[in-house]
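Checked the freezer inventory, then went back to the computational side. Two predictions to log before the end of the day. The first one is the construct we discussed on Monday; recording sequence and tokens without edits.
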Amino acid sequence: MSDPARKLEPITLEEFDSMDFGDRRAELIDGEVVVAQAFPSARHGQVAASLVVALFQAIRAAEADCRVETGTGIDIRLEADFRLGPDVMVRCGDGDGDPVLVVEVLSPSNSASEMLRKLRAYQAVESITDILFLEQDEHYAQHWSRRPGEPWGAPVYLIGPDAMVRIARFGAEIGLADIYRQALRDR
């Protein structure tokens, strides 16, 4: 006879902080621990790095009080807790600043459910005005945006090397060709 199915209770940010994942990266998604199964691929890293450079240049040109970050996290408290580590994040304002843009470079291991839960969490953060999901293997992005304090609109689907990502906050216009140039050059 098998054991009856049990629903695991969500854990809190405080419980997550007390856990040790060794050298593995972990996120807390809707109270559920998700441990990375492998390091990101080279292509994943190249897409993220190219976007960091483009965002840095756009922010500097706009003389915006913003900073580009990688490897940093964001805590979000909803009905269950989140600690997410977007691939790229832009913060604006004094001190550490508030997150205004989060970017996830999608890997084959990302599930649709995981990404929908992350999207819902990012959209709950009042200061975030732009969310960008980038495929790692093709010129394709999904971009959600809003003006501060307004509801989220439908995503804009960007397809092909001629498509442009537009971030109104600091006037960025970044071509997918620039983001993917290094990652897809051998294809």
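The second is the one RB wanted added to the comparison set:
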Amino acid sequence: MIANYHTHTSRCGHAWGEDREYAEKAAEAGLKILGFSDHTPYDYFDSEPRNRPMRMMPEELPDYAASVRALAGEYRGRIEILLGVEAEYYPKYFPRLLELLRENGVQYMLLGQHSLGNGIGEPYCGRAFPEPALLERYAAQTAEALDTGLFTYFAHPDIIYFTGSREIYAREVRKLCRAAQRTGTPLEINLLGIREGRNYPNELFWQIAAEEGCSAVLGCDAHRSEDLLNFESERKARQLAARLGLPILETLPIRPIG
């Protein structure tokens, strides 16, 4: 890899290490571009707790932005460092989120849809379930997110863990992939899923993505700095893409949110 746009920090509560450690490991790995994309804060104005345990708090965003910008200046000439977030598309709160990100100079968003609806009281998309209704909602809500044109790419789009009919899965995934192809949004082959043996990458998903003419990008989804040096997960992801004839984009144009 020469670029990784999917990197977390300790602020989300489930990643480890200092920001500088990620920059150092990225340089050691030979990356030319390192995008920090920690889990975005969301202001749940009518619910508590607002964010924990899987995302930074809104009041932490200025420090996050300042830290990444400082590293970008320090490492200029060695590696390009970008300031992003990984965000769910929660329609009720999305306009305020965009304001918050713009106020802090965030450069890009990745779509990482961990829950549906507006997040509150919704199940985690990565839990196993057989009901078609949740899969149908996932396909519809993520297609709506992609239609905003604001997401640089769709992270772990195959996180949804549907255990029912393959025919129903294929039908809904095809809708999602057509939205990605229509909007020109790359789909991420997630290396964390490979490292940890999760339910994704899902080969049927990627077979359909290839059939629909989608483009892929590799995302390290680093939660520890040493994840950036895990070349075995990259090798397996490239093997999957090659087997299915799926093109991998090595670098991406950032879609601004400002």
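For RB: The beta strands are 3-4, 33-39, 80-87, 108-111, 151-154, 187-190, 216-219. Residues 166-183 form the longest helix (18 residues). Let me know if you want it refolded.
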